[in-house]
Amino acid sequence: MNNVKGRINLEQIEEFKEMLKEVRQIAIVPHSGPDGDAIGSSLALYQYFKKKGIAARIISPNEYPVFLRWLPQNAEVAVYTEQADECLKWLENSNMILMVDHNSYRRSGDLEEILEKHPGKKVMIDHHPDPESILDLMFSEVAVSSTCELVYEFIAALGDGELIDAGIAECLYTGIMTDTGSLSYNSSDPRTYYIVADLLSQGIDKAKIHSNVYDNYSADRMKLLGYCLNDKMEVLEEYRTAIITLTQEELKKFNFKDGDTEGFVNYPLSIKGVVVSLIFIEKNGMVKISFRSKGDVPVNMIAREHFNGGGHINAAGGRTDLSMQKAVALFKEVLPEYKNIIVE
Ligand code: 5GP
Ligand code: MN
User: Fold this and answer.
1) 59: left (phi over 0), alpha (psi -120 to 50) or beta
2) Ligand showing the shortest atom-to-Cα distance for residue 127
3) Ligand positioned closest to the Cα atom of 36
4) Low-confidence residues in the chain, pLDDT < 70
5) What is the CA(147)–ligand 2 centre distance, in A?
6) Which of 11, 163, 274, 329 has the maximal Cβ count within 10 Å?
7) Is the pTM for the entire model greater than 0.85?
């Protein structure tokens, strides 16, 4: 590995090593609605601990997209909403919770309260801004492309870089790829590429990983995307903003499966001049909103200030109990507050 400085605090690594001595069993918990980075980092850590002879299991708050289910050791992911008893039993016997790719219990979905009350040691590995200082140990670094990149550094800092084999490398590369739009955004630090180079040197098939994740649309999903762009997209030129809305009824019409709308919010950013894109989706009696932007437009601010959410500058999320119509109306009402930032 090229000697570009790593980002893991070595004192914290020593602390973690001490904690490991007392560990009986670990529960690795990705965020609710896990994406490639959350599942990739969880599976990489699972394989790492297995090699170290430490019992670990991944407890996902809810289902994760089918396009990730080819990943090595996928069968080790237990889904709380599907296998509650099994998950609760594992959590009960664990004395360490490893929270990955999120930094507040609010993002742990239905596991929020269970994790909050859990008596075990709590450790976080994450790259989101503004972590809640709630855990025993936090490896929190926003200057990385992804949690997977940080997990690479974490394993290396533990002195176990040589344990990163092709299985772990496939998982880590997947998270780096999905969190950076295949290395198009959030990936300008040379260190990311040293890490990617090291992962590739394990003999992983980058083209296959890309194809497994991105070339797996069902016909219904492709038609839903066409419908979104053709019938549902509204471009607010004055604000260089595009919005798409999807109701439950519309999703049903296209036989919606979990993960089907993943990435749809990015498409309008390919329109010349558009720098903000939102998708509003009706989900479990709420409206979930995904925000994306280009350049310096902080969509996490809009998500935080008006939609009970947050996230990164260019990729954020939020939710509201308002109806779809009212949620869109609220967004249009507050948009002028941000006009100066958007239209510079
Ligand atoms: P997505 O649009 O893919 O659901 O989320 C994009 C990013 O926004 C996530 O990586 C996460 O950082 C953030 N995010 C999504 N939903 C929420 C939310 O409800 N609360 C907060 N604080 N951040 C969110
Ligand atoms: Mn991430």
Assistant:
1) beta
2) 2
3) 2
4) 1-5
5) 5
6) 274
7) yes
